[in-house]
Each structure stands twice: as C-alpha cells, then as structure tokens.
Amino acid sequence: MKFKALLLATALSGTLFSVGAHAAELTVGFSQIGSESGWRAAETTVSKAEAKKRNINFKIADAQQKQENQIKAIRSFIAQGVDAIFLAPVVATGWDSVLKEAKEANIPVVLLDRDIDPSGKELYLTAVTSDSVAEGKVAGEWLVKAAAGKPCNVVELQGTVGASVATNRKKGFEDGIAGASNVKIVRSQTGDFTRAKGKEVMESFIKAEGGGKNICAVYAHNDDMMVGAIQAMKEAGLKPGTDVLTVSIDAVPDIFKAMAAGEANATVELTPNMAGPAFDAVVAYKAKGTVPPKWIQTESKLYTQSDNPMAVYESKKDLGY
Ligand code: AHR
C-alpha cells in the first residue's frame, strides 16, 4: 500500500506534511449498489468529484443491485490492498464474514447512505448516513398536517426489502402518523426504489382501491418511485398533487419539476454527498489515527410546493441526477 510506505518514510524522516499530501497517495474502493434511482446516479457522480478534489485514487464497482457482487468487489479491493473501502450496503444483513476479512487485512470500511445490522458495528470505521427514521417521520408529520383531520387512506411504496433505509423510512412514517387516527396506511408494497416498479405497484394499488377513489395520499420511500406513481395516477385519470397528496424522499430534480406542475406535494432531501465526509474521515484516520464518530449524520430537509420548486429544479438539474 503506497499510503503506508509514505507514512513510514515520513515518520522515519521526521518530516511533517499536510493531510492534502496524504490524500494524494490514497486508494479507495467503493462498492456501489447500482443505478436504481436518480439519487444513486448523483451519489456516484458526486463521489467521483469529491475524490478528484482530494486527489484520491478512486475505484468504483457497480454491483447491479446484488449483494453477492458487492461481496466480490470488497474481496477484490482487499486483494488489491486499497487503503480504505466504501460500502453502500444494498441490504442490512450478511456482511459479517467479508467485513471481518477487511478488518483482518487492516483496511477500514466506511458505510455510505445505508446501515448494516447493529451486530456488525465493530466491523466498520464509521457510517455516513442520514437519519432515515427521521426522514420517514418528517414525511408522516407533513401528511398529518396536510390531511387536516380528514380521513386519509395512504398507500406506501417501500424501498428495497431488507435495506436499512426501507425499514427505517417505514418505521419513521408510522411514528409520524401514530397520533392521527384519521391517517391510515391501507396498502404497502415494495417498488424496489425504481421508477418502473413504482409505476407498476401504483397501478395495482389504484385497481385495488376503486380506481383510486379511496386513496387520499401516496408515501414513497424515494422520489423515483413517486415519479412512476404520478405517471400511473395520471394515466388512471387521477390528479396527483390535488386529489391525491404525495410525499417522498430524496429531493431529485424531477420531483421538483412535478411539484412546480402541481403534481407532487412534498419531498425530504437526502444529500448525494456522502463521500466527501467519508474521504475526510479516512484521510484524518490514516494520517493522524483520528477515529471518527461511529455515525456521521447528514442533514435532511423538507421541501414543499411553497419552496419555489422550479428554482430548486434549476439549481439541481446539472448535478448528476
Ligand atoms: O440509500 C439511499 C436510497 O437509495 C435513496 O433514497 C434511493 O433513491 C436509493 O435507491
């Protein structure tokens, strides 16, 4: 590992050098989930740009949604002797063996945007994620206000089964509506975080709920599924954003376009820049042994139609979504 050799040479010569100089020697491998959503595409783009800013040699392996591919990629990064591994875990379980291998090889692992089961906590250095329970809660609380005491049947489009963010966003939303007996989840199914599945599942919800007449709101664990659901509602002659309230998560440009057109109501922002804080943590850890907090939390912000959605769309549209 070039980085270790440099550190040793520097320690021997007693020369002090900046964190920036360390970064130039770092190689980081990133096991990315795939490209299921606009947010995911932006995260990949932003990660590359953040690596470039810091002069870090960055290798990305696209797992095409498969955990087995992520495990293979991690093993390959270990064999290559990278200085650190970033992992966006597609699901929360099943990482123990491979992360133990990374630990035995003395390679720190940083989780990006999704968590693993709490039992694996000693197997990674830090996790850079949002508070995904809070995101769901904010979405639920927004809906309770928007429903204003009227009976409101909600259909829910869940993310990938077994993903920490899907479990947490579901729980958070349920917490958010817990005090409002008028707001009820009547149907809930996975749309796997994709537009196509979001549309397909919404079509089945509409059919099952009297052509959509019984649906007051849609909650989607990401904006891409909501964009698909909006399409399904329009094709069924419903008016999303007016007859049917919508709230989702990510804040991708297309949801702001829909909000500006009055076809979506609210979204909770998830920053695509998880890699920037992760690189900084790894650089400080490698250079000075600074152990980062176990959780580096990124911010979540609610946007509604009153936040000038067209301006937000313009500001985001060229950012790699
Ligand atoms: O883990 C983050 C989630 O993964 C995003 O909210 C979703 O769009 C993506 O697929």
TrEMBL record:
SUPFAM superfamilies: Periplasmic binding protein-like I. It holds the Pfam family Peripla_BP_4. It comes from the Bacteria. Residues 29-276 form the Periplasmic binding protein domain. The keyword Calcium does not apply. Residues 1-23 form the signal peptide. InterPro entries: Peripla_BP_I, SBP_2_dom, YtfQ_transport. It is found in: Cell envelope. Keywords: Signal. The keyword Secreted does not apply. Its main location: other. Belongs to the bacterial solute-binding protein 2 family. This is ABC transporter substrate-binding protein.
